[in-house]
Known about the structure:
Blueprint: H1 15-63, H2 73-160
Amino acid sequence: MSQPKKSKRFKYNLEAVLKVRDIREKQEQEKFMTAEKQYLEEQKKEEEIKEFQSQKYKELRTIIEPGAKISNFQEVLMRNTHLGIVKTQVEEQEKVKLEAERIKEEKRELLLKAVRDKKIIEKDKENKRDGWKKVMDKEAGKFLDDIATIGFSRKKREKES
């Protein structure tokens, strides 16, 4: 680490790195938000398909409830076949949702890494600013000491003369 230098204003030598880390963090946030949005869409699709499936099962149960005559057995078979297709759609959608969730978690990890990287640079900037303030306070103290010494020696000379 380089030592802080005397100057009128604090100048951080890694400001460009801090800007890059800030940009990366924003990019990762956007990617994460997109992945989260995709996950929520897939979850919504899955819920809609499951709701449709449960509705069709209810319809089938009303058709084949005990004590009722089945007027068209072909219709019952077609509905049962359709429910099998809907079941495979539900399974496929669950896989798509799980994949979207996995991608979302990957993006979350990348976002957390970008935030950590930025925080490291910000902490370094704070530490260097504190060091610079200490150096500047020390310099101000030296300046005041010099002024006091000059005043003291002037008064001493005036007293002697």
